[in-house]
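Async update (no meeting this week)

Hi team, since we skipped the sync, here's where things stand on the single-chain job. The sequence we agreed to prioritize is pasted below, unchanged from the tracker. I ran it this morning and attached the output directly underneath so nobody has to dig for it. Comments welcome in thread, and please keep replies under the output.
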Amino acid sequence: MRDYDHIAKVEKNGAILLGDETVADSFYKRLVRVVTHAHEDHIRGLKRSTKESMFIVATPVTHEFLKILGFMIPEQKIVRLDYNREIDIEKDKITLKASRHIAGSAQVIVESINGVSGYTGDFKMPGTEPLRDLDVLVLDATYGNLKYQRGWADWDALAALINIIEKYSGEKPIWIYGYNGKLQEIMIELRSRGIKNKYLADEKTIKMAKIASEFYNVPIGDVSLFNKKLVDAGTIVFMHAFKKRDFIKVEGIHVNLTGWEMRGIAVRIKDNLFNVSFSDHATFKEIIEYVKESRPKRVIIDGSRSNSAWYTAKYLSRVMNIDTKVEPENTLGW
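Output:
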């Protein structure tokens, strides 16, 4: 029986071990650190990796995001790897594949002497081409439970957000809260759908939005550095979710972007506060569809970033008869 444990593994700190020399999305003492995208839970331990790994591999866009976020990676350690390009580093051949999540996000394939492993990183469908011909697939299952299955699509959530903007922006400013990557995606999506309101945001958000604008080839339009004096009816203010508590009582309509809102597409929490159910992750059914198309020999569910890894694993094992594990092994429910 094949020893898949030497091909891929998930550590307790969220480090995804691939091949012989490669680790993704958290710290582990290996030659190569891959960053699939610039979300907080996927850049864990990056400063330590910068000191102890020889190469930091990511797409050019992700490297630009990391620089804006304050990560000072020495130039000699930066590997800007475009999608579908292979690079050989010691015993591993590394390829990044596109994923639909945020600008620059990637899936990873690593070929080594022991076999071929792949890691989805965060993704959503449609728009992410499943990795194929793998011995082991490490799978994100953030929404890996049917109880988190949304009955609507991203464009429904976007339509709901646009309705809120069109209804209220003539009277009040609109405040939109989300995380890095999601904010920029929404900024671009609104522009592509004809929203021309003035944008306000902090310096990091604007810099990342301009990079996302080039990535998606959609002009960012009228955008200025946030200043309270510039906030008036018709402006849309984009704020990191961590700052919501500082501004939630300010005059205007406040919109929280969250994939965890399951009650409806847009739910009114208070007179001036909405939750819009916009997610950057695949639903349970989309996760299963991905695996059906991928058909790896083994699946490892990343239990370090999901409370529902066990649910997905049981479905794949018992219904689809796929060799499936949850790692780390002490993940609740497995």
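Quick observations from my side:
The longest strand covers residues 92-98.
The mean pLDDT is 92.
Reply here if anything looks off.
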